[in-house]
Design goal:
This protein has 248 residues and is α/β, with parallel strands linked by helices. The protein contains nine helices and seven strands. The protein has helices at 19-30, 44-48, 63-75, 101-129, 141-144, 150-170, 188-191, 194-207, 220-227, and strands at residues 10-14, 34-39, 52-55, 80-83, 132-137, 175-182, 238-241. A seven-stranded parallel β-sheet has the order 3-2-1-4-5-6-7, with helices on both faces. Helix 1 (19-30) crosses helix 9 (220-227) and helix 4 runs parallel beside helix 6. The longest helix has 29 residues, at 101-129. It is globular and about 45 Å long. The relative contact order is 0.15.
Amino acid sequence: MRPLRLDGRACIVTGGAAGIGLEFARALMAEGAQVLAADIADGAVAEASGASYLNADISAPEGPANIVAACLERFGHIDVLVNNAALYASLPMARYDEIEPETWRRVLDINVTGTYAMIRAVGPLMEAQGHGKIVNITSGTVYKGMPGMLHYIASKGAIHAMTRALSRELGGAGICVNNLAPGLTLSSSVLGNTAHLDAARDAVLASRAIKRDGHPEDLLGALVFLCSNESDFITGQTIAVDGGSINT
């Protein structure tokens, strides 16, 4: 029997109760990790899969601190943070000049400020223990753009920049900060909003070197790699998992 690559590690997956986040949580647990799935979605499926669940909003003032406290209470330490929670599939597509200011602010509050707040809450603990893995889930659209999704693409571009900067700040403490950038992925949440598929699917497939749809399971190998010891000398980087649609 092969050794488990994440045996004994304590992981937080934000947005880990549904969609791609739930698949992330399951993949980490399959490699021996203890996982806290923090989400505003119902946690019954995550708990049935073996994860610990906390109803929490990363954009709320107390949300990140509550998530960290719950992980420490349940597991005693934090080794991995997967920043997956974000607004995407539920967003209506709109021209840049038709995006409502409140929608713009909400996207940035969750996708950017919420991600930063999680890192701000977890980072000092990882620094004190001298190791840690932070994986930010971004998007290939940062590299090629997409009409109708300026708020989302701007938010993910900010995460790319944050990852580069944080890798410099935290590398001396043994903390690796990297991006995992999916292409259009047929998750349950994306399949629930056909507007995104109708707008992008044909162009995305045409742009790929590997001419097929992407599925959540395509992302799991890269995620586990970035969370494991195998990536201990990799930081500030982006791994795009999109069938060769972009080159990073």
